[in-house]
Amino acid sequence: MSRFSAEREKVILASVMAANANPGWLTSDRVEALTGGHGMLNIPVVAVCNVIAAELRRGISPEVKFADAVRQPIDDLLTKSIAVATAAGADGANAALIAATLLYLCGANAQVGIPAGNRKLGSSARMIAGVSRSGLAAVPTAKMNNKISGFAAVAAVYEAMMKGELSPVQGRDIPEGVGGGVMVGHGALGEDLIFPGMAERGAAIGTKAMMDAMSGAGMPSQKFLSALFGAAAILEIIHPDADVAEEYGPYGKVTSAFVAGRSAVRTAGLPEKIHVRITGKEVETARLIGDLGLILKDIGGPTVIGIMALDEIVSVFEEGICGAGAGPVNPPLGHICGDAVIALMCLLQDGSTEQSVARALRERRLGFSFDPETAMVAMNIVARKATQICNGPVTEALIMSSTPMVTKALHARAARSYDDLMAGKSVGEIVRAMDDERQLLVEKRGSEFLTKVKGTTIKVHFTKIGKGARRSSKMAVRWLAFDPALDADVTVGDKTIHMEGIINAVIPEVAQGIGKERAPFLTALAPIASELLLAGNVIMNVTIPAVVAAAMGKMSASDAAGEAQSAGLISAGIPGTKAKAEAAALVAVETMAL
To answer: What are phi and psi of 100, to 5 degrees?
Structure first.
């Protein structure tokens, strides 16, 4: 090997090792804060996935049994899961919700039994977490720009109830001494008429109220959360695990929770069946919504980020009924936990190994994501941060899945940066070229994905990506994400239009009824724009060129990082990039000095 080749390899190796020494140096997101539960709860989700995978794979049963016993194995699973979620920063109610939801998806039943010895998964989780019961009216939805609470569903259901429009039979019409006991609760009046009638009407009323309230708050009417809160609202009132008439399903197999779930699903317009990503396991949406509604009403008082974590957990289903982290668009790293839930579900299949799951996760991302390299680097960062709280089979699978692609991506950028710097290019030129290629990749793969999903030709190309569209403050003119100026050519079917000032002008106009014919074109470009505007989630296009320049001695670590940040219009879209790149560059410089 020549002296030049040896020096080149040393710089590349030093740069790759330095940039990847701390996973936080490859993102502008505050991932250390995530390990304390600040802002989002994806780290607790990943940690709980580790615990559940380890416990279930050694034979512990997640079944909630109708047993005459104080404690059973599910209680131990909940205790361990809640403890690790709390260690990762989740408060009691959020930890209980995360643990109960994940265990439910892994086979735990939501409830079992009659009054003496009756157990509910949500109630057990709440009791073990040591938190008080709340009411659904106080539980918020996930934040979708704004957020509402379950009060909308509760108020609508109570209004119908007080008007005599909820129950098919009024309590005052039941003979004195008959109502409130076994003759109604386990008889035709309760099981065949009152319980299912109230479940159907109440869930529909509550779900519609949530959708209307979300719209009224300037939010999208998210179907999953609307159905979930709508079902939970009526399950707070009716006998939530009553048997119902056999027209709804076999006796002993279908309860009022299922009836509520089915009504909520139909009202919201959710698909009847959904399927777990990779495994293909089919789940009846009515049962999922009914059971999760049962859990939610009993769990205590989760916060906004607790419900956002729930939303991301349920992104495990390929129909994409909620969540962002498991989808094709790469979100901020606080949303990244869907792959962990997928890994958990895969690891519980017979014959699975961490290696086989890792390969399946990688193949899915390579074929599915708008930007697969970014997706895999994001997966790697979150998995490595989660190991600070708890290691286990899930983080092992995630790290095995992502590390080969992370290595390839960093090495390619380091080698290119070295060669370009030797050829006389500046750090800024290299960063700009890498970000231009990132934009084109996202536009190409995003357009191909949307064309396949929509069944019609979709093409999106941004002709302008700039800062300070409508503001002159230092923040707005320095960072893309805070006031983006976007122009684009968008094709839908056989029609192409050009739009200018998309975020600062077009979207407000269309939302207020001006030029509404542009709406389908905005819908088409939205996921691709989101990918680019959230690109501070992975900053290897900024970090690596800066690190290589410093390692070569061409610039100081500070100057290289500053120039890279200034040039990284897309990747450096939010503050924090310079500090991360400089920290990594200093390590590379120290390495070269040895």
So the answer is: -65, -40
For residues 531 and 571, the answer to whether their CB atoms sit within 8 Å is no
In this structure, what are the phi and psi dihedrals at residue 101, rounded to the nearest 5 degrees? -65, -45
**310, 298 contact by CB (below 8 A):** no
The full DSSP string for 6-35 is HHHHHHHHHHHHHHTTSGGGG-SS-HHHHT
Helix (H) or strand (E) holding 397: helix 393-422
Query: Which tokens hold the place of 171?
Result: 């309590």
Contact 66, 113 (CB under 8 A): yes
226 vs 64, residue with greater confidence: 226
Q: E strands along 114-258, which residues?
A: 119-120
Provide the 3-class DSSP secondary structure of residue 454.
helix
Alpha helix (H) residue ranges in 191-325: 195-216, 223-235, 256-268, 285-298, 304-313
Instruction: Tell me how far apart the 2 most distant CA atoms of the chain are, in Å.
Output: 99
DSSP 175: P
CA distance to 12, 47, 159, 584, per residue, from 593 (Å): 14, 38, 74, 15
By three-state DSSP, how is residue 490 classified? strand
- ∠ at Cα 142 (306, 219), nearest 5°? 175
pTM above 0.85, yes or no: yes
Phi, psi of 199 (to 5 degrees): -60, -45
> What does DSSP say about strands 282-284 and 458-466: parallel, antiparallel, or unpaired?
unpaired
pLDDT in tens, 466-477: 999 999 999 999
Tokens of 32: 């250390």
Structure tokens at 115: 């009054």
Provide DSSP, 542-564.
Answer: HHHHHHHHHHTTSS-HHHHHHHH
**Using an 8 Å Cβ cutoff, are 401 and 357 in contact?**
yes
For residue 581, give both structure tokens. 């790149």
Report helix, strand or coil for 80: helix
- Tell me the C-alpha distance between 276 and 325, whole Å: 14
- Which two structure tokens, joined as six digits, stand for 173? 């019409």
Give the Cα separation of 6 and 494 in Å (integer).
54
For residue 116, name the pLDDT band (cuts at 50, 70, 90).
low
The number of angstroms, rounded, from the C-alpha of 278 to the middle of its chain's C-alpha atoms is 17
Q: How far apart are CA 395 and CA 271, in angstroms?
A: 31
Residue with tokens 């191909």: 448
Q: Output phi, psi for 76, to 5 deg.
A: -65, -40
Asked if residues 169 and 179 have their Cβ atoms less than 8 Å apart, the reply is: no
CA 491, 494, 500, 503 dihedral sign is: negative
